[in-house]
């Protein structure tokens, strides 16, 4: 995935960026102008600069120097002078610093065969296979942006059927449409719509095929829920408060309830997050099994990650039906990588957990009416 480099010489000319921009840089991005908070007063275009992240948000916009808490992200070449950056904000949006020596070497595949490739983390790719969409089905991706799973689902269906993608943010929905067009996928229909309101409460016949939808409209639903994102890595530091982390649970339950209503009897619902907290993962599964009794927890295929975590009151058998990618708790193991091709999948699961983001997957089937 990436590895840290500790021998980069820091430069006298500094650029300070916000925490969100800093995380993007750690994962392979350049520094874009809107993310720049401060720059040295003598910075010119073409200068070699050191980039730091202000993780506590204490640096004032436009400051010429900053002595607060900051994390070194690497070196790059400034595309603009300090004056050009701060005199033309907020309309300036291009690259401000092109990273040449980042602390983490995270390879970028942007614009590499864009009509053929869509970069995904391993767990994100596993999710679509667990959902197992079939040609001719009607699939809902309830929280779809940025659309990697949406396009993967359509590809697995051989672009035969219908994939409905919903997201609340209009520019992200446009990005989903652009990716579908770029990849030549005609089965995707994307809408700017709040997933918590996707259930049509009145029983008037649905004639337009747009959200909201009648109950039991979909063969399979992916709920890749909004979450605290604590599984994303590399990361500078945990800047979330306990209140912020726990705020996601009610929203996830609203979406869970809507998804269960929209699913056909016998249909498949896959719930996933890119976080590692018990409250957003195993506790949500336990809540769903208790509150939505028509949902049954299922085994997953493929099963690449580890089993679920104790603490939510789930049985040992139920934990085995969950899939958790959690690199921080997987012990390092000595292994002959040359023999991996001959090893059983259960013997090599630790490898998948060792170099990916933190992630969680649960699969349910809706009981048919009796």
UniProtKB/TrEMBL annotation:
Active site: 274 (nucleophile)
SMART domains noted in UniProt: PUA
PROSITE patterns listed in its UniProt record: NOL1_NOP2_SUN, PUA, SAM_MT_RSMB_NOP
Binding-site positions, S-adenosyl-L-methionine: 143-149, 167, 194, 224
UniProt key word S-adenosyl-L-methionine: yes
One GO BP: RNA methylation
Gene Ontology molecular function: any one: RNA binding
InterPro entries documented for this protein: MeTrfase_RsmB-F_NOP2_cat, MeTrfase_RsmB-F_NOP2_dom, PUA, PUA-like_sf, PUA_sf, RCMT, RsmB/NOL1/NOP2-like_CS, SAM-dependent_MTases_sf
Superkingdom to which the source organism belongs: Eukaryota
Domain SAM-dependent MTase RsmB/NOP-type as annotated: residue spans: 42-367
Keywords: Methyltransferase, RNA-binding, S-adenosyl-L-methionine, Transferase
Family membership: Belongs to the class I-like SAM-binding methyltransferase superfamily. RsmB/NOP family.
PANTHER family attached to this UniProt entry: NOP2 YEAST -RELATED NOL1/NOP2/FMU SUN DOMAIN-CONTAINING, TRNA (CYTOSINE(72)-C(5))-METHYLTRANSFERASE NSUN6
Stated name of the protein: Methyltransferase NSUN6 isoform X3
Organism (species): Neophocaena asiaeorientalis asiaeorientalis (Yangtze finless porpoise)
The organism's taxonomic lineage, starting at the top: Eukaryota, Metazoa, Chordata, Craniata, Vertebrata
Gene it is expressed from: NSUN6
